[in-house]
Amino acid sequence: MGQIHVLDKHTVELIAAGEVVERPSSVIKELLENTVDAGATVVTVEIRNGGITYMRITDNGCGIAGEDVPTAFLRHATSKVRTELDLEHIGTLGFRGEALASIAAVADVQLTTCTDESGAGTVYRIVGGEERQYEEIGAPKGTTITVSDLFFNVPARMKFLKKDVSEGNAVAAVVQRIALSHPEISFRFLRDGRQELFTPGDGKLFSCVYAVLGKDFANNAVSVDYTLEGVHVSGFVCKPSATRANRTMQHFFINGRYVKTSTAAVAMERAYHGMIMVGRFPTCVLHLELPPEAVDVNVHPAKIEVRFVNEKPVFDAVYHGVRSALQAVPSPAPTHSTPAKQHADSAFLRRDVPQRETVQTVFSAFSKPTVTPPAPKTVPPVVKQTFPSPMTVRDDTAAVRPSIDITVEEPSLVSPQPTAVKSTVPAAPMHTPTPVTVQPQQEEKAVTENTFTPPRILGELFTTYILAEHGDALLVIDKHAAHERILYNDLKKVQETASQMLLEPVAVPLSADACNAVLEELPLLQKAGYILEEFGSMTVLVRAVPTVLAGCDVVSVIEEIAGGLVSGRRDAMTAKEDWLYHSIACRAAIKAGDATTPQELQALAERVLTDSDVRFCPHGRPVSFTMTKKEFEKQFGRIP
After folding, report:
1. Counting runs of H as helices and runs of E as strands, what totals does the chain give?
2. In this structure, are residues 246 and 561 in contact, taking their beta carbons and an 8 Å threshold?
3. Which residues lie below 8 Å from residue 50, measured CB to CB, with a gap of 6+?
4. What phi and psi, each to the nearest 5 degrees, are found at residue 332?
5. Residue 446, Cβ density class (10 Å: 0-12 exposed, 13-18 middle, ≥19 buried)
6. Were both Cys, which of 130, 143, 574, 589 would link to 483 (CB 3.0–4.6 Å)?
7. What string of DSSP letters covers 218-241?
8. pLDDT per position as a tens digit, 514-545
C-alpha cells in the first residue's frame, strides 16, 4: 500500500472542478445563475464553437466590488450563505461558492465588473487558477465574464466533449430553461454570431414560452393557476391533442430553479389519465412555489435534483391544478365532414371506405399489374401474389402502402412459365407519394402438394382478426401483427430503405437531448430511409422519409424516433437499427379496423403459414393461434 500524502493545490482544484464543470453548458448554467442572483434584467449569452473556445455573458446586475473580485474566485467563497441555518431556507440559485473557482481552474477567464457605488470598474483575468491581471478600468454597471479555451489544461476531459453542434445545443437548452424560469429577465442568445433566442423580459410567462418553445406550443397551451396546502402551481400544459411521443418537453421549476422531479411529472401525467392515448406524453412549463424549508436543493453540485420534506402536497397540487385546467378546456366542436378516425399508434387521418371496391379502385390508379391468365398444368409452379395494404389518406390525398410479394408453392393450375408481374407507377401528382418497391421475399423452402394446402378464409372478426380454416383447425391471425412482422423482415433484408422526397422539407423542433441524439445517428437514419440535416437551434430539417411512410405526419414520426434514440442512447448499433425498422413497420402496417379485401386476407394467411419467421410481431406478441377440431368438439360435448 502506498504512502498517504496530501495532494497539491492545483490537482485538488482540477478534481473539484470536475464535479461542477462537465462541459460548456455547465459553465453557462453556473454563470447565468449568478446573473439572476445579481438582479440583472438584461442578459446576453454568446458562444463560439459550441462554447469550447469562447463563451461570454454580459448582464446589467449589481456587479462585484473591486476589492471582492479576487476573493470571488476562491473556493467556497460566496455572498449568499453565511451560516448553516441559511441552508435551511435557500432563496438564491447559487450558494455553494464553487462555480467561479472551478471554471477558472480549467479555462482562461476574464471578468469585467462595475457597481453603482464604485467610480471605476475592475478587470480581472485568471488562467488555470493563476492570477494574470487585476486592475481598474472604465466599465458600465454590471458584469461581463469571458471564458476561453475550456479544458485547455485537462486533455483527458477535452477528448470527451462532443461535436460543436451537440455542445452548442446543450448550451442553448440551458439558456432556454433559465429564460423560462425568469420571464422578467430579457435573454439574448448568440451562437457563432447568429441570434437564436430573444425573450422580451416583460414578466409574462406566456411571452417567454412563445419566444422559447415556439408558436405551436403556445397555441396549444392551457393556463394553470392553482394553490393547495401552501403549494402554488402556475404555468402552462398542453392540450390533450398536442401530446408528444416522449417526455423531453416537460419543464418543471421550483422557486425559480429548473429541476427534475418525478413527483411533479407523475402527478401531471396522472392528470391526463383517460384523455390521451397510451405512449403519448404531455408537455408543460410549470412553476411550483413552496416554502424554501420544504424543499432541499443541496443534494447534488448541479442543483437539479431536489428532495421534498413531504411529497404529498406537491403531488396533490400539481395533479388537481392540471386536472382542473384541462377540464375547463372546451371540447372541440363536432365536425360533419367525411368520417375519420385517428389510430393509437399513428397520426394518420384515414377515410372510412364503405365499399371494398373503392379501395381497390384507388389503389389500382397507382399500380396496374398485368398478369398472364393461368393455364392448366399438373406441376406445382411458384405463384406470386401481390398483397397491397389499405391506402391511407391525409389532406384528401391518397397515399399507398407498400406491396408485399408473397411467394408460396401450391397445387393450383397456372402457366408453366408465369410472366413476371411489374408495376408501372406514373409520375406522382402533387402531394401524392410514390409507392415503395420492397425486395421480394426470398424463396421459401419447397412446399409440395402433399405438405401445404391453402387455407380457406372464413372472414374477419372485429375487422382485426382473420379467421381461416386450415386442415382440421381454425387459424386466427392478428392482421396488424402479421403485416408488421412481414414489413419488418423485408426491411431488414434490403441494404438501404427506399426514400420518398418531400415536396417541402419539414422543420421539426426538438429538445437539446433529442436533437443531439438524432444528429449523432444521421447515417443510421439515412439507411432506414430518413434524410435529415441540422436546421438552426435544436431543429432538424426532414427532406425525405421511407417510402412506406409517404403521407404520414412527419413531425410525429421524427419526435417518436428522437425519443426512442434518447432512451436507447447506450444501445448497440444493431439494437438501434432494429428499433428503427420496427418503428417504420409499425406505422406502415395495416391497422386494426382497416378495411381488407378477401384477396389480402388470403395472402396474409398464406404468408403466415409458409414463412417460419412470421410467428411473433416485433413487439413480441403472437401473430396467430390455432384451435383444432377436437377442441371444438370437446366444447360442444361431442367427445369426452
Report:
1. 18, 28
2. no
3. 24, 161, 162, 163, 164, 165, 166, 167, 168, 171
4. -65, 145
5. exposed
6. 589
7. HHTEEEEEEEETTEEEEEEEE-GG
8. 888 888 888 889 888 899 998 877 889 999 99
